[in-house]
Amino acid sequence: MSLDTLKDSLPDYAKDLKLNLSSLARETVLADQTKWGTFLAAAHATGEAETLKALAAEAEAKLSPEALTAAKAASAIMGMNNVYYRFLHLVKSADYKQLPAKLRMNALANPGVDKADFELWSLAVSAINGCGMCIESHEAEVRKHGVTAEQVQAVVRIASVVNAVAAVKRAEAA
Predict the structure, then answer these.
(1) Fewer CB atoms near the end CB (10 Å): N or C, the chain?
(2) pLDDT surpassing 90 at residue 109
(3) Number of structural domains in the chain
């Protein structure tokens, strides 16, 4: 499945999503690795099969094997971290914040790609998963790497559209 096939499979009421997929695929504020890694990490985070297959096919044609693996790793590690750190953020008891996480997070230290890209992919997944603590942390980290507000916005726009496309696909399959 391709990006065009995915767009064509969306119902008419999701026309804005089709248009947004097209414009985001042509986004120039992000390097191709950053952009297509974001598409893949976001699709991976949604877990919706058709969205993931289409965007993985697009990403495979545009990313190195290392970047493909790193984008998936960002989704995987954030799938864990977003739940854990959202809990810490929402729980009232300070006891938990004093305890070490005791969760392996090696991918964060050695992602196999440019650290800023991995952090942006982690930010996109954190936005989808709704972890405010992780969003703040990754946004601050990418800014230290010189990433602009426009680039952060582009990554979050991709995540939001991919998430919406996946939601429509799930709803239509129900």
Answers:
(1) C
(2) no
(3) 1
